[in-house]
Amino acid sequence: MHTDHNTEAKLFNRNGWKSLGADRAPCRCHIKTGFFLLLTLVFLVTAITYVSEFSFNAVFPDTLSKKVLNQIRSYYVATEYLSARENQTTFLATNSVKQSPTQTTNLSVNHHVAHPSNYHFILDEPDKCSQWDPFLVLMVPVAPHQLEARNAIRSTWGNESSVQGKAVLTLFLVGLTGGAEAQQKLEEESRQHRDLLQSNFVDSYFNLTIKTMVIMDWLATRCPQAAYAMKVDSDMYINLENLMTLLLSPNTPRQNYITGYLMRNRSVIRNKKSKWYVAEELYPEPKYPTYLLGMGYVFSNDLPEKIVEASKEVKAFNIEDAYVGACLKQLGIVPSSPPDPSQFKAYMGKYKRENFIRVITTILGSPQQLKDIWKDVKKPS
Ligand SMILES: *[C@@H]1O[C@H](CO)[C@@H](O)[C@H](O)[C@H]1NC(C)=O
Ligand SMILES: *[C@@H]1O[C@H](CO)[C@@H](O)[C@H](O)[C@H]1NC(C)=O
Ligand SMILES: *[C@@H]1O[C@H](CO)[C@@H](O)[C@H](O)[C@H]1NC(C)=O
Ligand SMILES: *[C@@H]1O[C@H](CO)[C@@H](O)[C@H](O)[C@H]1NC(C)=O
Ligand SMILES: CC(=O)N[C@H]1CO[C@H](CO)[C@@H](O)[C@@H]1O
Description:
Elements: H1 5-13, H2 20-23, H3 30-51, H4 56-59, H5 64-77, H6 84-92, E1 121-123, H7 128-132, E2 136-141, H8 147-154, E3 162-163, E4 166-176, H9 180-193, E5 196-202, H10 208-222, E6 228-232, E7 236-238, H11 240-248, E8 258-259, E9 262-263, E10 291-292, E11 296-300, H12 303-310, H13 320-331, E12 344-345, H14 353-358, E13 361-363, H15 367-378
Parallel strand pairs: 2-4, 2-6, 4-5, 12-13
Antiparallel strand pairs: 1-5, 3-4, 6-11, 7-13, 8-11, 9-10
Bound molecules: 2-acetamido-2-deoxy-beta-D-glucopyranose (NAG) (5 copies).
């Protein structure tokens, strides 16, 4: 989800959207400018409509699909949006988290801000995996207030406890809530569903790298028995049958395996206005190593422990999926392309049932859409 930086940055750099009118003479050109803008808009809408009939991945791998994906994502993260620029310093400081003496973590370990040793669980399900013995664990990072998204998942793919005879477990990870009342509600929800994990970092868009590393820590320490895990965002559709078929295939490695939507040769965004801006102090190289788009990536469950360990050597930055990519590079593990890359789709375009029957995962627009599509896909044909 942090990936469309390229396109967006370019668009902003060239003042394509924002200051078109301002750049072009402050004269009588208003009408002309307006007309030009309108034309651009009409063209874009037409292009989007046209392309959405096809596979976005195939037609516009790096430009328009990314922009659209971006827009879908923006709805979700808008409320959590924080000025990345002003908050880069958080990730620069090592040991920026004040340790309380009552904390269970090892106080002598002072890693960078994203290392999970800095945090502890407030809500935990430490026995869930020994009780459930899952083959696959779906780990969903979500903001505390996104109850609707959690409930949509609970009534769809999160409610599939067994797929092709293999146990599947879905858990949500949140950070700190804003206040006591929200915390109380969350604890109630936890008692009711027993599927919430909460860690004591500030829950924000900027802090998604911390969230991901805490997910890896939970898998490594509370669920080593699982064979595979998936980090999957709360606005995703998952076809568990297809995912299970991939995981049970004799060609799928049981170790050092990670797959999803591959991001190759991606530039780091240095435009300070971008949401995906990363300072050179945090990440000096101009390109990210190959990584998997954060919307949903699947991995053999030996990796979480290795990633947490490697992350001690990899300075934190705020692009969670690229950060995991940097840890994989440190480990010398190369992300795998899925047997059918079109099964990990950023954007599906216009709803077609047969596409959702074929795919493994794709981004949706709303929790309601997940419920609607789920119902439609599950109905006997
Ligand atoms: C805490 O971490 C230090 C340094 O990594 C290690 O030497 C020590 O054994 C750890 N203590 C505990 C209780 O885990
Ligand atoms: C989950 O599925 C079971 C049937 O398998 C159903 O009884 C239950 O209501 C479902 N839970 C939700 C939250 O939809
Ligand atoms: C990220 O989390 C850390 C640890 O809770 C916190 O100190 C920091 O303020 C957070 N940053 C943002 C931007 O939320
Ligand atoms: C990587 O991207 C750069 C432009 O940013 C391009 O010049 C180069 O050819 C690309 N390399 C590969 C292997 O695609
Ligand atoms: C501009 C901005 O959003 N700054 C945020 C940086 O992070 C702190 C928490 O560490 C927030 O309180 C600020 O609002």
